[in-house]
Amino acid sequence: PDVVNISKYAPRPGTEAAKMKQLESNIVASRSRRLSNLAARFVLERNIRMIGVFEEINVVEKNRRNITFGRTHNYKKVMVGGERFLGERLNVKVTSANLRYLCAEIVSSPNG
How far apart are CA 91 and CA 72, in angstroms? Predict the structure, then answer.
Protein backbone atom coordinates (compact mmCIF):
# COMPACT_ATOMS: atom_id res chain seq x y z
CA PRO A 1 0.00 0.00 0.00
CA ASP A 2 1.07 3.59 -0.58
CA VAL A 3 -0.15 4.71 2.82
CA VAL A 4 0.92 2.94 5.99
CA ASN A 5 -0.65 3.96 9.28
CA ILE A 6 2.11 3.62 11.87
CA SER A 7 0.95 4.12 15.43
CA LYS A 8 3.03 4.02 18.57
CA TYR A 9 1.70 1.46 21.02
CA ALA A 10 0.11 2.66 24.25
CA PRO A 11 -1.21 0.22 26.85
CA ARG A 12 -4.88 0.48 27.79
CA PRO A 13 -5.45 0.96 31.51
CA GLY A 14 -6.79 -2.11 33.27
CA THR A 15 -5.38 -4.60 30.74
CA GLU A 16 -2.65 -7.19 31.22
CA ALA A 17 -0.45 -5.24 28.80
CA ALA A 18 -0.63 -2.20 31.08
CA LYS A 19 1.03 -4.27 33.84
CA MET A 20 3.98 -5.25 31.64
CA LYS A 21 7.26 -3.39 31.48
CA GLN A 22 7.06 -0.78 28.71
CA LEU A 23 9.75 0.17 26.21
CA GLU A 24 11.52 3.48 26.62
CA SER A 25 10.00 6.26 24.51
CA ASN A 26 13.21 6.78 22.52
CA ILE A 27 13.13 3.11 21.43
CA VAL A 28 9.48 3.41 20.40
CA ALA A 29 10.21 6.61 18.46
CA SER A 30 13.24 5.05 16.75
CA ARG A 31 11.26 1.99 15.64
CA SER A 32 8.42 4.16 14.38
CA ARG A 33 10.84 6.35 12.41
CA ARG A 34 12.62 3.30 10.91
CA LEU A 35 9.33 1.75 9.85
CA SER A 36 8.13 5.04 8.32
CA ASN A 37 11.39 5.37 6.35
CA LEU A 38 11.13 1.78 5.12
CA ALA A 39 7.53 2.27 3.98
CA ALA A 40 8.49 5.51 2.18
CA ARG A 41 11.35 3.75 0.40
CA PHE A 42 9.00 1.01 -0.85
CA VAL A 43 6.48 3.58 -2.12
CA LEU A 44 9.18 5.56 -3.95
CA GLU A 45 10.66 2.42 -5.52
CA ARG A 46 7.21 1.30 -6.70
CA ASN A 47 6.47 4.78 -8.11
CA ILE A 48 9.80 4.87 -9.98
CA ARG A 49 8.97 1.50 -11.59
CA MET A 50 5.89 3.19 -13.10
CA ILE A 51 8.03 5.51 -15.27
CA GLY A 52 7.34 4.74 -18.93
CA VAL A 53 4.01 3.04 -18.20
CA PHE A 54 0.84 4.12 -20.03
CA GLU A 55 -2.23 4.63 -17.81
CA GLU A 56 -5.76 5.92 -18.10
CA ILE A 57 -6.59 8.48 -15.44
CA ASN A 58 -9.62 10.43 -14.29
CA VAL A 59 -8.99 14.12 -13.58
CA VAL A 60 -10.07 14.68 -9.97
CA GLU A 61 -8.35 17.76 -8.61
CA LYS A 62 -6.97 21.18 -9.42
CA ASN A 63 -4.92 22.68 -6.61
CA ARG A 64 -4.49 26.35 -5.66
CA ARG A 65 -1.61 26.73 -8.11
CA ASN A 66 -3.87 25.42 -10.92
CA ILE A 67 -1.96 22.13 -11.18
CA THR A 68 -4.14 19.26 -12.38
CA PHE A 69 -4.12 15.80 -10.80
CA GLY A 70 -5.82 12.58 -11.79
CA ARG A 71 -6.09 9.09 -10.37
CA THR A 72 -5.36 5.74 -11.99
CA HIS A 73 -7.64 2.70 -11.66
CA ASN A 74 -5.67 1.70 -8.53
CA TYR A 75 -5.82 5.25 -7.08
CA LYS A 76 -2.25 6.35 -7.85
CA LYS A 77 -2.09 10.16 -7.90
CA VAL A 78 -0.86 11.56 -11.23
CA MET A 79 0.06 15.17 -12.05
CA VAL A 80 -0.64 16.30 -15.62
CA GLY A 81 -0.05 19.60 -17.36
CA GLY A 82 -2.43 21.74 -19.30
CA GLU A 83 -5.95 22.99 -18.80
CA ARG A 84 -8.11 19.96 -18.01
CA PHE A 85 -11.65 19.51 -16.75
CA LEU A 86 -12.65 17.66 -13.60
CA GLY A 87 -14.04 14.25 -14.52
CA GLU A 88 -12.16 14.16 -17.82
CA ARG A 89 -10.54 10.83 -18.71
CA LEU A 90 -7.05 10.90 -20.21
CA ASN A 91 -4.50 8.42 -21.51
CA VAL A 92 -1.10 9.38 -20.12
CA LYS A 93 2.49 8.18 -20.06
CA VAL A 94 4.29 8.39 -16.71
CA THR A 95 7.46 10.46 -17.14
CA SER A 96 8.75 10.85 -13.57
CA ALA A 97 7.87 9.99 -10.01
CA ASN A 98 8.36 11.09 -6.45
CA LEU A 99 7.16 9.87 -3.07
CA ARG A 100 3.75 11.58 -3.30
CA TYR A 101 2.67 11.22 -6.93
CA LEU A 102 3.54 10.33 -10.52
CA CYS A 103 4.08 12.95 -13.25
CA ALA A 104 2.78 12.22 -16.72
CA GLU A 105 2.32 13.62 -20.20
CA ILE A 106 -1.02 13.37 -21.93
CA VAL A 107 -1.03 10.92 -24.82
CA SER A 108 -4.71 11.29 -25.77
CA SER A 109 -8.25 11.42 -24.51
CA PRO A 110 -9.92 7.98 -24.68
CA ASN A 111 -12.51 9.37 -27.12
CA GLY A 112 -9.96 10.82 -29.50
Answer: 10
